[in-house]
UniProtKB/TrEMBL annotation:
InterPro entries: Chr_Tranpt_l_chain (IPR014047), Chromate_transpt (IPR003370). It comes from Paenibacillus mellifer. Belongs to the chromate ion transporter (CHR) (TC 2.A.51) family. The gene is chrA. GO terms for molecular function: chromate transmembrane transporter activity. Coiled coil: none annotated. This is Chromate efflux transporter. It is a multi-pass membrane protein. It is found in: Cell membrane. The chain crosses the membrane at residues 82-105, 117-137, 149-181, 209-229, 241-260, 306-327, 339-360, 372-405. Keywords: Cell membrane, Membrane, Transmembrane, Transmembrane helix.
Length: 406
């Protein structure tokens, strides 16, 4: 019988404790999370060097999924192998997931769902997604060609709203980017870190584990839709929907909104109002925005649904980090990968812009008062630079006032 290693257990507990602290305090979205991570893991604890951290962030920006969560998983992988990656993910994710599950259960069967404050959360979602479109557009859709890709992606998303459409848009935009930017300077390639080992030599992970993780990622992405059709079961269908959402999101947590909306609302699993209210509530808690999936799972199928949705939406990110990180030092310098990603990133802005209009704007802004509240919330985020949780509280209060006046 294999005895547990006390030193290894202590290290796992340390990773979990540190990531839990970050999960309880990291407000502000993925970019802010990376700042918290840098201070805690690089400056304070020296768990990873400056250059390796920069490479890890670059890799996670290239991969689909929640970038900040993937960076945390990667640091856990460096620190404690696969178990360390699991501990880092659990600590960072559980605080916000538990809060959002409790919020979903509280809404069910109570009069809270009819409150004006809940409409205020929908208006908060308008402001937050508008800010995301603005910020991402400036960085990822600047210039005539990328702005055109974004506009066409938005138009196609609105004309043919489905999860498959978004996948085809991303694939087509990658090809367009590969063609348009083939003669431009290589964007954002990172030099090899001098004086540091290559990534594959620094991770306690056999190549066979990496290959198996990539095979599992691709296999589940292809098999889950087929299996859920052959055996129509709500739990299996939930796992399929949230796994695909976690597999196909490029550009940060906000982009998961249109993917999930096109899957769960048309099926009748959750109403439009409850969907947007949960998205607004997800802005008020620290940690990854992908725990919005925990709220949806709880709303659809109780605690069991929350567990399935949480595991499914983060599993692709986990498999990709384990599968790709050992090979990243070879992939990072390939110009064609970076050219294709320019097109993908511009398309992501367009998909998010389409989501800002439908379902967010058309279901939330019904009268002048709604527009005024959404405009003030947008100004609080963009120009006053207030923390998102403050804006969420203000949005709930504004909705309550509108309901009282009306």
């Amino acid at each position: 019988m294999v005895q547990p290693n006390p030193g290894r257990l202590r290290r796992m507990f340390e990773i979990f404790a540190v990531s839990s602290k970050l999960g309880l305090t990291s407000f502000g979205g993925p970019i802010a999370h990376l700042g918290y991570f840098h201070e805690e893991y690089v400056n304070k604890r020296k768990w990873i060097g400056e250059l390796k951290y920069a490479e890890l962030v670059a890799l996670c920006q290239f991969l689909p999924g929640p970038a900040s969560s993937q960076v945390g998983m990667g640091i856990g992988l460096y620190r404690g192998g696969i178990a360390g990656a699991l501990a880092a993910w659990a600590g960072f994710t559980l605080p916000s997931a538990v809060v959002l599950v409790l919020f979903a259960l509280l809404l069910q069967g109570t009069a809270l769902a009819d409150g004006g404050w809940l409409h205020g959360l929908k208006l908060t979602a308008v402001a937050i997604v508008a800010q995301a479109v603005w910020s991402m557009g400036v960085k990822l859709a600047a210039g005539r060609s990328r702005a055109t890709i974004a506009a066409l992606a938005a138009a196609a998303t609105l004309l043919w709203p489905s999860g498959l459409t978004q996948v085809l848009i991303i694939a087509a935009s990658a090809l367009v980017g590969l063609w348009l930017y083939r003669s431009s300077p290589t964007p954002g390639a990172l030099p090899a870190p001098s004086g540091e080992e290559p990534q594959s030599g620094s991770i306690r992970l056999r190549r066979s584990w990496a290959v198996a993780s990539l095979a599992a990622f691709v296999g589940l992405l292809g098999l889950l839709p087929l299996v859920s059709r052959w055996w129509p079961n709500l739990g299996l269908q939930l796992f399929d929907v949230f796994y695909r959402a976690g597999s196909l999101v490029f550009g940060g947590g906000h982009v998961v909104l249109p993917l999930l909306q096109s899957e769960v609302v048309p099926r009748g699993w959750i109403g439009e109002a409850d969907f947007l209210s949960g998205y607004g509530a997800a802005q008020a808690v620290p940690g990854p925005l992908f725990t919005f999936g925990s709220y949806l799972g709880a709303s659809i199928h109780g605690v069991t649904g929350a567990i399935l949705a949480t595991i499914a939406i983060f599993l692709p990110a986990f498999l990709l980090v384990i599968g790709v990180l050992p090979f990243w030092h070879r992939l990072r310098g390939i110009p064609k990968v970076q050219y294709a990603l320019q097109g993908v990133n511009a398309a992501v802005v367009g998909i998010l812009l389409a989501a800002l209009y439908d379902p967010i704007w058309v279901s939330s802004v019904q009268e002048t008062g709604d527009f005024i509240v959404a405009l003030l919330l947008f100004a609080m985020l963009m120009f006053w630079k207030l923390p998102p949780w403050v804006v969420v509280v203000a949005g709930a209060a504004g909705g309550a006032i509108l309901g009282w006046i009306g």
